[in-house]
Amino acid sequence: MKLIKRLSAYAVIIVMAGIMPGLFIGTPALSQNIETKMIPANFDLLAAKVSPAVVNIRTEKTVSGGGFGMQRYKRRPFDKNDPFNNFFENFFGGEQRRNFKQRSLGSGFIINKEGYIVTNNHVISDADKITVVLADEEEFDAKIIGRDIYTDIALIKINNAKDLPYVEMGDSDALKVGEWVVAIGNPFGLAQTVTAGIVSAKGRVIGSGPYDDFIQTDASINPGNSGGPLINMQGKVIGINTMIIAGGQGIGFAIPVNLSKGIIKQLQSNGDVTRGWIGVTIQEVKGEIAQYYGIKGDTKGVLVLDVVSGDPADKAGIKAKDIIIAINGKAITSSRELTNRIANIGVGEIAKIKILRDGKKQVFKVKIGERPDLIASSDLRQKRDDELGIHVVKITPQIARRFNIREDAGVIVADVKSESKGDKAGIINGDIIIEINRKEINGLKAFKHALNNVKKGQMVSFLIQRMHTGLIVVHIKK
Predict the structure, then answer these.
(1) pLDDT per residue over 98-140, tens digit each?
(2) DSSP conformation letters of 175-232
(3) Are 216 and 204 in contact (CB under 8 A)?
(4) How far apart are CA 193 and CA 229, in angstroms?
(5) Which positions are catalytic?
(6) Is residue 369 classed exposed, middle or buried when 0-12, 13-18 and 19+ CB atoms within 10 A define those classes?
(7) Which fold would CATH assign to domain 276-370?
(8) CB atoms within 10 A of CB 418
(9) How far from 123 is each of 106, 189, 204, 242, CA to CA, in Å?
């Protein structure tokens, strides 16, 4: 009889569990009001749809010095009395150096039938030869159409290919944290690989450049995945797989596709990228700064610290201590958002900028100017100095204003070839060369003349002004 009563009690519990599923398995009560999308049964349809448009990119570039990688040794690899030193010197020829081919791998995706392919700039940078391998293993030579070092986006093209499959671009702004995504690429040179995960975060700033706005995902991204697509569950590209953190697991970064759309369009049309500019120095408005300026509630904005005389903001009437709270009707919540929003407005267009001045809102119409980027893509395509591996350009009025220097205050480094003498000495993009061997450099002519006066084997001393650092001296043996 007791057994029957116990069974009856269990039956009641089972019936109640059936009526109110989740009550006895720890499901939160909120789940009754939230639609939960479970793990997809499989990703085969997505892979089949997008994979044909994903390509493997192989590059070759010439690197000077040190066959067998022995140039990496700054001293002998053995103790000075070790008998193996004689073998080392005889076999590898001591300090003898030679050029060798360096090969690398990456990924990309086809965006139209004409053969245009999007990838990362770092995948094809300095490449002497670019080979694109389609999903069906057909190979084509590719040429660079344009590249943007600031967002690490490049556009290349293959010719004579027919009926090319291509991807469909999605909307990365609509992407939500926790949403399922799929990464497709060629990690470690392997054939196409499909990995899945979720969006871990959006708007990540990791210090890689002025336009940081990465999608963070735990979909496996490895070396060789760079340039491949990150797609949503509709098979649309919402990101360009770009970066991993060394030693990290489940942390990969992708460029939002909405950031890349305008850049790709400009690269396809002009081979170069221009960005909007209004000429202001800005700072976040939060904490005590927000209290000081009387900003309350949900109102956010960016404080204008200074306005460049003669630039668009100045001409429109914007002043220091104004707080920019919206652009073209859309709220501004951070300095990064303001920078990206202005950069994506076409040069010459009129932007309506709403500001808060002395507690009152005003709207100014600002004609967008061109951002004085330090290094233009067209500069990168010009020839470098062959001996030192650096390429310099003249200082433009915009660059002079940005650095608060004279236009004849030197020349600016636009590019440094990997593993060149300049690279090994520590010269970087954006360095301003003021003097060479204590002689003032007031332009490109003076730069070339100063280098030509230094004989091979002699030391060249560069006096350099570096942003956020100040003056430094770099020595290079010519």
Answers:
(1) 555 667 788 999 999 999 999 999 899 878 899 999 988 899 9
(2) --TT-EEEEEE-GGGPSPEEEEEEEEEEEE--SSSTT--EEEE-S---TT-TT-EEE-
(3) yes
(4) 12
(5) 122, 152, 226
(6) buried
(7) Pdz3 Domain (2.30.42)
(8) 13
(9) 6, 13, 22, 10
Q: Where are the domains of the chain?
A: 2-32, 45-64+99-271, 276-370, 377-477
102's tokens:
């360096």
CA distance 154 to 397: 27
User: How do residues 340-394 score in pLDDT, each as one tens digit?
Assistant: 889 888 889 999 999 999 888 999 999 999 876 554 444 444 444 557 888 888 8
Residue 58 and residue 130 in contact, taking contact as beta carbons nearer than 8 Å = yes
List of residues 6+ apart from 36 with CB closer than 8 A: none
Domain boundaries 45-64+99-271, CATH class: mainly beta
| 231 C-beta neighbours (distance < 10 Å), count | 30
| CATH fold for domain 377-477 | Pdz3 Domain (2.30.42)
How far CA 278 is from CA of 42, 282, 311, 322, 349, in Å, comes to 48, 11, 6, 14, 11
Tell me which amino acid residue 420 is: S
* pLDDT surpassing 80 at residue 206: no
Instruction: Give the mean model confidence (pLDDT) for residues 287-306.
Output: 78
* Tokens of residue 171, six digits: 């909307």
Establish whether domains 45-64+99-271 and 276-370 are of one fold.
no
- Tell which residue, 127, 160, 151, has the closest CA to residue 57: 127
DSSP assigned state of 163: S
Secondary structure letter of residue 367 according to DSSP = E
Count of beta carbons in the 10 Å neighbourhood of residue 456 = 7
Q: How many whole angstroms separate alpha carbon 50 and alpha carbon 185?
A: 11
The answer to whether residue 34 scores a pLDDT higher than 50 is no
> Which residues lie closer than 8 Å to 190 by C-beta, 6 or more apart?
224
Question: Quick one: DSSP state of residue 257?
Answer: H
Residue type present at position 315? K
Angstrom distance (rounded) from CA 15 to CA 361: 62
Q: Which one has a higher pLDDT value, 291 or 453? A: 453
